[in-house]
Design brief:
Layout (H helix, E strand, L loop, with lengths): L2 E4 L5 E5 L2 E8 L3 E7 L4 E7 L17 H14 L8 E6 L15 H15 L4 E6 L5 E6 L4 E6 L3 E4 L1
Parallel strand pairs: 1-3, 6-7
Antiparallel strand pairs: 2-5, 3-8, 4-5, 4-6, 8-9, 9-10
């Protein structure tokens, strides 16, 4: 049976082979899942905010895509990944409280998605799948050896991404 590594809010983890990276309860947060299918190395970051300017506690690299993604790439390279082979998937970025935000303003989930895409694009890591937006919470199970990403959504069951 594969070992499960739990990734909490504003955290990141990398694993190799028969490992399952898990994060639960994504709302407006983003799970950035990266994979090197040749090296069987994967990584998952649970992003909380789109930028440092929205937080007083800027010392945790897992909070923001600008710091979490490069840290995750380093952790994956240490396990044998080649940055040129990395692909990414994004999950989350829901508008959990859309009715509480003034009409026309950008939701935190949308801002998290945009910021994550920008960093991945800057690092030339292609996004090969997304399950973002909407108003439902999600949880993620990434089976690294298989490269299989399961996304469970409230009211929508499980999808493979």
């Amino acid at each position: 049976m594969a070992e499960e590594l739990i990734v909490r809010v504003a955290d990141l983890r990398a694993g190799r082979g028969e490992v399952v990276l898990v994060t639960l309860g994504l709302g407006s947060c983003i799970a950035i899942v990266m994979h090197d299918p040749s090296a069987l190395v994967g990584g998952l970051a649970h992003i909380l905010l789109p930028s440092h300017s929205l937080s007083r506690a800027g010392d945790n690299p897992g909070r923001f895509p600008q710091t979490a993604i490069p840290h995750l790439v380093e952790a994956m390279v240490a396990l044998g990944a080649d940055p040129r082979r990395l692909v990414a998937r994004l999950v989350g970025g829901a508008s959990m409280f859309a009715n509480l935000v003034p009409a026309g303003s950008m939701q935190m989930g949308d801002r998290n998605v945009i910021a994550s895409r920008e960093v991945l694009n800057h690092l030339a890591i292609p996004i090969v799948g997304e399950a973002v937006g909407g108003q439902e919470g999600r949880s993620v199970w990434f089976h690294v050896a298989e490269g299989r990403l399961l996304v469970r959504s409230v009211g929508h069951g499980v999808q493979t991404l």
